[in-house]
Amino acid sequence: MTWATVEDVLHITRKAVDADLVAVAGASIEPHAGRVYDLDADRIGARDRHHLKAATAWQAAWLADQPGYTARHNAQQIDQDGASVTYKRTGDGSGAGHAITLAPLAARALKNLSWKRSRSTRRHPMPDHDSTLRGIAPWRPMGRP
Length: 145
Known about the structure:
Layout: H1 6-13, H2 19-33, H3 37-40, H4 46-63, E1 78-80, E2 83-85, H5 104-111, H6 128-133
Antiparallel strand pairs: 1-2
Helix pairs in contact: 1-4, 2-4, 4-5
């Protein structure tokens, strides 16, 4: 079992694939997601399951057009006979350059997972209700009494 079915892939991507390819896609999504279907499927919410299904579907559709997928390596740069290849980093902060192993739309779906989002909160630097509790005068713009 995996996060998506053959029918899910067809519905989401409009591309027909077989069950073996969906299994490979699911196995290749798990390390990027940090969740394993057999262990975590019942422990995560519907929204995260939706994003994992989409990521697996896009990965399966992409894999169908990726010959030699399992033999690829993540090179920073290759120079040979005047030709140069440098694989693009993903920019997701993980330091992983997975542009050659992960479908672009799968990568985007994975960024929507609840445990991949930023955990920072937005707060005004000195809201009035906090400042009075700390014994500091409430914030006022400069030049006003």
